[in-house]
Amino acid sequence: NLRGLNDLYDDFNPREDFVFFPLHYEPETSLLLQAPFYADQIHVIRQIAKSLPVHYKLYVKEHPSMVDYRPRGFYKELKKIHNVKLINPAISSFSIVPQAKLITVITGTTGWEALLFKKPVISFGNQFYNALSMVKKCTEIEKLPYLVKEQLENFTHKEEELISFISAIFQDSIT
Questions:
Q1: Alpha carbon separation from 20 to 29, 68, 87, 98, 143 (Å, rounded)
Q2: What is the tens place of the pLDDT at every residue in 131-159?
């Protein structure tokens, strides 16, 4: 990484049909305990990329805290996957999420943020927001293409459900 990674980053094109996958910080409890069967992020990315409609791209963005720690070879491996674009981590997820057609996360706050942006979400791990009917949790990787199709074609944002969920969180929180 001493020579930098800028030569590996692809352009962010908000007009392109794309699905967003934010890389997770490692090691992290949310990855290792809440999604132990999905801790190999390159494998998960391959599966998501294979599950997308032909013209879609999978935009992958590094966790900002991990840029200095992952080896350059990790990113080169990602670049070998057909229809995957590596996005510069300096670009805010808040610029990417509103433009994405679908957000995929193993675990993490980006899935929650996507719901607040009224975006469909597929998660792989155990997250509090999986309780919402708008989120599809992938429990069997063979079913991922069907979940992707369902979320891209039939997603309906349910504002009342989301507000009730947030209200329940506030009621159970310590003030």
A1: 22, 22, 10, 10, 19
A2: 999 999 999 999 999 999 999 999 999 99
